[in-house]
Amino acid sequence: MNVSRSGYRVFCANSTSACTELAKKPLLEKTLGVSLLRSAYYELLVMAYALKTSCAKNIIGVIPYFPYSKQCKMRKRGSIVCKLLASMLAKAGLTHIITMDLHQKEIQGFFNFPVDNLRASPFLLQYIQEEIPDYRNAIIVAKSPSAAKRAQSYAERLRLGLAVIHGEANHSESDMADGRQSPPLSRTTPGHTGLELPLMMAKEKPPITVVGDVGGRIAIIIDDIIDDVEDFVAAAEILKERGAYKIYIMATHGLLSAEAPRLIEESQIDEVVVTNTVPHEVQKLQCPKIKTVDVSMILAEAIRRIHNGESMAYLFRNITVDD
């Protein structure tokens, strides 16, 4: 494809390696047939606004890992940061977004323009089938009941069994302290006794247990984001106690922050497989157990199809609603 006749250009912000590492993939430039144009200092919002004021016909934001995607629900009296980010992107001038495996699919409703939420499951399923020896003896594991639907989707397509880890760790004190125990300002109103609220029962944390037989099996834990790995390490220990002889973790977004590489290296986990939606080369140097699956091909194909007005349904074939 000739660059001058393609009708679109691909820009990349240089402020973070998250942008440049994925954008430099040869498959992306080969599929699109254009060279990557890098900006020396523009952030996404500034770039979008600059293109908008330059009368660009369409501005498509490719955000494989959508930031603040976990902050998509109101917790106590907190803010919904994901909604704020969606409003900012629209105000800056974006007309379309391509992302991958949103933490909650309902996030798409925060936007007033189209959002294509691609899936990494075909790539991760392919990895399981090609790179895990004797995967037929594996069992798919959900780290929590909330992850059971995603895990079940993998289990059905691989024709494997399903296990669920049930139980929660206690919240930290900083998470529980929200200021509600602080004494309110004294405001006495004559004739008003105040409203007595009913006493709410505290949530009781059940002991961690495994629903399903993992004895003598390869355990494959499925999730969308792996950031703090304490829960995964604890899950791996329980699965080992229940007889699993190998433990894999499959996730789309490998944030792997803080001490995650060291904790993984010292744990019972045999391998952590994530896509390259988030760069993690430094973490891989610290922990050889971390493996990467390239998803640049599907991102490039999504850009090409949107620009040419082609159907996006091809990219969602064999995708279930629970992915």
Give a short account of the largest sheet: 7 strands, mixed
Order of strands in the sheet with the most strands?
8-7-6-9-10-11-12
| Spatial gap, N to C terminus | 34 Å
Share of helical residues: 25-40%
Structural class: alpha/beta
Radius of gyration: 23 Å
| Mean pLDDT over the full residue set | 83
| Global shape | globular
Residue share in β-strands = 15-25%
Low-confidence stretches: 171-176
How many DSSP H or I helices?
A: 11
* Topology pattern, helix = H, strand = E: EHHEHEHEEHEHEHEEHEHEHEH
Number of strands: 12
Protein name: Phosphoribosyl pyrophosphate synthase-associated protein 1-like
Pfam family, one: Pribosyl_synth
InterPro entries: Pribosyltran_N, PRTase-like, PRTase_dom, Rib-P_diPkinase
Function: Seems to play a negative regulatory role in 5-phosphoribose 1-diphosphate synthesis.
